[in-house]
Amino acid sequence: xxxxxxxxxxxxxxxxxxxxxxxxxxxxxxxxxxxxxxxxxxxxxxxxxxxxxxxxxxxxxxxxxxxxxxxxxxxxxxxxxxxxxxxxxxxxxxxxxxxxxxxxxxxxxxxxxxxxxxxxxxxxxxxxxxxxxxxxxxxxxxxxxxxxxxxxxxxxxxxxxxxxxxxxx
Length: 169
Prior knowledge:
Strand content: 15-25%
Protein name: tRNA-specific adenosine deaminase
Cofactor: Zn(2+)
Structural class: alpha/beta
Binding site for Zn(2+): 52, 82, 85
Family: Belongs to the cytidine and deoxycytidylate deaminase family. ADAT2 subfamily.
Keywords: Hydrolase, Metal-binding, tRNA processing, Zinc
């Protein structure tokens, strides 16, 4: 399978997150050419900071390969890893990360900084970005547009409700 094939699997995971109202980010972990773990963002559902797709897929990967070291793995994720996830990637010794869309607000694999290639750490990661970038980016753009529209609609309904309750007869 190619990087694009694995990214399609990560996108399928992101769509699962979207169906739950989560930010649509998905991740797939490949060990020696075989998918050993898949996950998607569950931060809202679990209400835990570390419930990013990458963190969840790393935990599942540790269980699958029965080691905290994921030295023969490639991590595929639809969005550039944040600082927390980049740190976990380094700690797990993942040698290669492939991501879809860049994250100009929190990306730590090239956008804001590149923690994954910082020579001060004892482990550096090969980073490949922009794989199916347009598809991955559209998932997020559509999600946040819809979220803004829902919030705007809720605000309008709240104002209408307030006016109805506070009308003097």
